[in-house]
Amino acid sequence: MTQYGFHFDQNRCYACQACSIACKDWNGIDPGAEKWLTVYEWETGTFPNIRIHPLAYSCAHCEKPTCIPACPEGAIYKEETYGAVLVDQDKCTGCRECYDACPYGAPKFASDDPGEKMSKCTMCIDRLEEGLQPLCAASCPLRAFDFGPLDELIEKYTDIRYCEGMPSPEITEPAYLIWPQREKEPLVPFDAERAIELNRQRGDLGTMFESKEDLTEFESGTIGRSELRMKHESMAELMRATRNDMA
């Protein structure tokens, strides 16, 4: 078996959701939490060093998937041509043991209803059989995705399968490589202290804030998404974590 996989360049992605919407459209998935390709966003830092982090993630089609042995019905299997991890929905009973076992939250559900069957990324095998790329890779306007045999991707991009906040790749050996975000470099140098002081002033309207600490120190919970979370207790929580219900 040749293991195929994805490479994702976090520096190119700006969370436009094109990949997620294209995936839903191609696979006939209704709007809502059943997102085979899920785009996560989170924020770190404070002014002037704020950073928005994006991560577009479907299923890693892991080399050592934990979802397969977790399924009591034997509904999940790894096919032999591309190494894709697939689900037989006729066997699935919606027990969600696969979701509990997967560190990435790749199994998806359309609702929180008991018995809701699992669905997930298929690696677009139907497209691969026609010599086409998976639709997420084909639809990205900034070409943040690449796809192909995993060994070729590793040779091309190096073997990095993790960005800050993700589970350890040693758990499942995901067929998902990533170039994490590089450090920010200011294109135009500026005096941050002066910028803060100028932003305080609003003429007759008074000041926007009283001190520098108002921009740099926040109570816990003020920033809604301050870390990457790939697993969620409910569909509503997943929707809040992935920005909107457009996809």
From TrEMBL:
The keyword Electron transport applies. The keyword Iron applies. Keywords: 4Fe-4S, Electron transport, Iron, Iron-sulfur, Metal-binding, Repeat, Transport. SUPFAM superfamilies: 4Fe-4S ferredoxins. Residues 4-34, 48-81, 83-112 form the 4Fe-4S ferredoxin-type domain. It holds the Pfam family Fer4_11. This is 4Fe-4S dicluster domain-containing protein.
